[in-house]
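Let us practice reading a record.
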Amino acid sequence: MIIAAVVGCITLIPGFVAFPLAAGTRYAQIAIFISTLMMVGIATLPLEMKCFGKRIALKRNILSLILVVITSCVVGVLML
């Protein structure tokens, strides 16, 4: 799950490409990969800092990452 989260945070690919990439893995890994891909952006962080300010951009990304981890754990438990 950590690898899926890191890859999702770093990559910049569209959602319709991400779903086939995640096929064949567990639901929790798919949830964390797709969610971090859409919600947490390391590649876009400098632009976000420039537009919204450093504090807001970092806060949004950290809170999004926490929410994604919680959500993927819930998905992993529910989809067993």
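A brief commentary: Residues 2-78 form one domain.
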